[in-house]
Amino acid sequence: MGFEQLAIVGVIVCGTIALLAFFNTLKISRQLGRKGPARRARRLVGTPEGATAAARSIVEELVRNHGPQVEEAKAGGPAGRELTEAIEEARTYYLSRVEARYKPVFHDVLDELVLGKKESST
Fold first, then answer.
1. Residue 94: other Cβ atoms inside 10 A
2. Confidence of residue 84 (pLDDT cuts 50, 70, 90)
3. Which of helix, strand or coil describes residue 45?
4. Spans of all domains in the chain
């Protein structure tokens, strides 16, 4: 086999590899572009029970993750910056998951679980 034939075989092999890579990339981009169950938008919680359960779950996780700061706030101490930021982050997440009419439920559950107050806005 001469040098020219070897060069032609190399060009063919490289071209084949490039075409395979292109078609693989095209296949992946089509799969990512499809809207399937994983891409479906989540429905907002639309019942008082569901909103309360969502708020309770989020606040319980907050209490678990920030126990010492929560205990200090329960005792009448100031809520630290870290706890305040965590509460705001939890509230934002809650509001992204429930209908607007259930906004006050988060604060009711927060008051109940963190401060020990029992009030109801709904």
1. 23
2. confident
3. strand
4. 3-39, 48-115
